[in-house]
Each structure stands twice: as structure tokens, then as C-alpha cells.
Amino acid sequence: EPVAGDFASVRPAAIAQMSMEQLRGCGLSGRKSTYVFELANHLLDGSLDVRTWRRLDDEQVISELIRIKGIGRWTAEMFLISFMLRPNVLPVDDIGLQRAMRLHYNDGEPLSKSEMREIAENWQPWCTVATWFMWRSIDPKP
């Protein structure tokens, strides 16, 4: 039986067998425990097939992920950036990116999402890399 903190068991089948208490014991809130459980079940029943994602563009992967309750666009973009290492993701809903862009491009004043996208046109096709630099610029300690 999987136990909280047993990271070798972080597979959909193991998660689907865990109780909500065990998931909460891993540091998840009750709501996030439900979301993780639901995600595991979607992976197990085949309604999400990660093997196809390498062939999909970023927006297609995002569309697949946001069908799952608890996964929004920002979470899907973080997945593309951190797990899939997609090179051209611009997470305009990310507070850190918003903060860095307003500091570096707009004298500290807020930017609209469309303004952020316009600035990032110069970063194509490496928006993910630019985002990493933006994040690091406001939090320089690794």
C-alpha cells in the first residue's frame, strides 16, 4: 500500500489507490488531493494519453490538460515548461513573469496580457527561455 512521502510510488495506479488522507499527508490540500486523484484516474482510464503529447503543439496539450478539473491554463503551461521542456511558452498569467516584465519593460507599471504578448514577439521562438530569465531577474538566487 502506498504511503505518504513514498515518491517512488508517484504513478497513476499508486495514486488512485491512495486515500485522501494519504494524499493530504503528502502536503496536498483536500481540494488538490481530489484534483491529483482525478488526474490519476484520467491517466489510468486512457482519457489522457501522455504518449501522444510529444506530437501535439502546445495549445493542443493545454486543451487536453485543462479538461481535468483543477488544472487551469497556468498549471498546463508550467507542465509544458517544467516537464515537457517546450521552448516557446509564454505564461502571461504567471505573477512572477508579470512582475518582471512590468519592471523591465514598463517602469514598474502593470502591462496587459496583450502588451506582454507584444513584447514577447521579440522572444520567439524562445519564450520559455526568456521567461526563465525574467523569473531569475526578480529572484536571482538559484
Features:
disordered N terminus; about 140 residues; mainly alpha; about 0% strand
Question: How would you describe what is shown here?
Answer:
- By secondary structure, this protein is mainly α.
- It is built from 8 helices and no strands.
- It has helices at residues 12-17, 20-25, 30-45, 58-65, 73-82, 95-105, 113-120, 127-138.
- α4 packs across α5 (73-82) and α6 (95-105) packs across α8 (127-138).
- The longest helix is centred in the first third of the chain and has 16 residues, at 30-45.
- It is globular and about 50 Å long.
- Mean pLDDT is 91; it is low at 1-7.
Mean pLDDT: 91
Strand runs, count? 0
Structural class of the helices, strands and pairings?
mainly alpha
Q: Report the principal-axis shape.
A: globular
Briefly say what this structure is.
The protein has helices spanning 12-17, 20-25, 30-45, 58-65, 73-82, 95-105, 113-120, 127-138. The chain is mainly alpha-helical and 142 residues long.
What's the helix and strand layout?
Layout: H1 12-17, H2 20-25, H3 30-45, H4 58-65, H5 73-82, H6 95-105, H7 113-120, H8 127-138
